[in-house]
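Format notes (please read before filing issues)

Several people have asked whether sequences and structure tokens are stored in separate files. They are not. Every record keeps both together, in the order shown below: the sequence lines, then the token lines. Line labels are part of the format and must not be stripped during preprocessing.
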Amino acid sequence: MTRVLRTFARRVGAVVAECNEAQYRLLMLRLSPDRYPVGPDQLPDTYREFLFRTSGPLVHEPSAAVRCRRQNR
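Then the structure lines:
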């Protein structure tokens, strides 16, 4: 019985952690300065504009090994 509860708690924790990570990534994408110019898909006109667009925090992508371990849990 305790083994079942531990497994259930681990799965709930994994879901909560994944939701937290997705929420953080969505927040970073929404706050990205690249989303607000008139043409976000256009190239920047000046070096200054390029620096502004890339000034936001970079979202860390987990390595393939870490993603694989998460899926196998």
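For reference, the curators noted about this record: The CA atoms of residues 2 and 8 lie 10 Å apart. Residues 2-71 form one domain.
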